[in-house]
Each structure stands twice: as structure tokens, then as C-alpha cells.
Amino acid sequence: MQAKHREQAEARRLRAEGRSLDEIAAALGVSKSSASVWVRDVPRPAATPQDRERRRLHMEEVCWAPLRARRALSHQAERAAARSAVGRLSDRELFLLGVGLYWSEGSKSKAWRTQSALVFINSDPDMIDVFLAWLRMLGVERRHLRFRVAIHESADVSAAERFWAGRVGADACFGSTTLKRHNPKTTRHNVGTGYHGCLTVYVRRSAWLLRRIEGAWCGIVGAATLPGADCGQSAVV
């Protein structure tokens, strides 16, 4: 009985502070109807903006936290299933994947500029890993690879250089880092310890491979649209 009296007293105190019935019930582990009976004669102060914000955050946590947790578990299961379904890549699958990857992110010939070697740049370390695996599969020798970091000058440049060196190997040949001028008027979201800038991969003596990519991409376009379709000038954009 004394425990119940203590709960009632605490409920009345919380009500006097401006807490809602939902908050009181959650704090004491009782039903909302019990909380309502205990505090029905306690006037509730007018809610301040801080009170409203506190209640909003509380209800968001009470109502949405369990849903977010269930959704996160579901998403993890979906990703795990998709990863397992990929299995081992054949050389052909990796080749086609690499062609699409390069055509999306690599440097290509333009009408006003002919590209004569492979240049690939990206900020995603996993994408860099896949691209390097693709080059190894094609027999590109490591001595033909050159790397360069590009990062905002306001970031931790030394940490980014160490990160990429650790990612691609201590024996990698790096050029001088390219620093992007900081614009204080721009709100950047790629900040913090997880920001490592971009890594550019240059492949020397790779004109032959660039031509192969252009032809393979033309074949992919034709196979994905109409059989026997002429991709025209799509290999030069």
C-alpha cells in the first residue's frame, strides 16, 4: 500500500511539473487510467515550448522507437539475403560489372576531347576495391597504377592520405594530393572522421582497355534494349 501511495505522490508531482498522462503512466509503469485517477484534482500548468518539445520527443521515442528497431532488423535481413544470393562472381560477371562501373564513374572520351587512358575517381572505398579487383582480373599490372587523393582543404588531409594508403596498399604510388578550396558559404555534409575525400586511380598504358570498355558498353546497351540494336555513337559521349 505504501508503494502505491508513493506512486500516487510521484504522479501528482509529475503532473504539477506539467507532464502529460502518457508521460506519467510511462514513468511509473502504470496504466493511463490509473494515472488519470491519481492526478485528476491536480491542475496542469500551461505548457511551455520546452514542455511541448519534450513531449514530442518522448512520444516519438515511445511510439516510433520499436517500429524503427523492427524495421532495422528487417532491412538487415534483406541485405543479408541479397548478399548471400550474389555468391561468387565469374570472370564474365565481374567484367560486365566493371564495365558498367567505369562507364558510370570513369573518365570517357568526349566530342571535344579524346580519352586515351583509364581514369577512375570515387569516394566510396568499396567501389575502389571492386574497381581494383576488376583491373587485377584483366591482368593490369600494379606498376601501371597511380593514385591521387582529392579532398577539401578544411578536412583532415593527412588522415585521408593514410586511409587511402591503407586501403590500396602500402606499395601504391601516390601523387600529390589535390586540395579543393573551401567555400565558407557552402554547407557541406561530407565532414567528420568518416570523410576521406575521393581517390583517383590512373591506369597507365590502358588505351587498349578503354577501347574494350567502349565496345563492351555498346554491347551491353544493345543486349539490354533490342537484340542487334546499333548503339551508334553511344560509346563516345
Describe the structure.
This protein is an alpha+beta fold and 237 residues long. 54% of the residues lie in helices and 9% in strands. It has 8 helices and 4 strands, in the order H-H-H-H-H-E-H-E-H-E-E-H. A 4-stranded mixed β-sheet has the order 1-4-2-3. Strand 2 (145-152), helix 7 and strand 3 (178-180) form a beta-alpha-beta unit. Helix 2 (21-28) packs across helix 3 and helix 5 (91-105) crosses helix 6 (125-137). The chain is elongated. Mean pLDDT is 86; it is low at 233-237.
What would the principal axes of the Cα set say about the shape? elongated
Tell me about the largest β-sheet.
Answer: 4 strands, mixed
Give the SSE order as H and E letters: HHHHHEHEHEEH
Strand content: 5-15%
Category by helix and strand content: alpha+beta
Strand order of the largest sheet: 1-4-2-3
Mean of the pLDDT scores? 86
The DSSP helix count reads: 8
Question: Nutshell version of this structure?
Answer:
This protein is of the alpha+beta class and 237 residues long. Helices cover 54% and strands 9% of the residues.
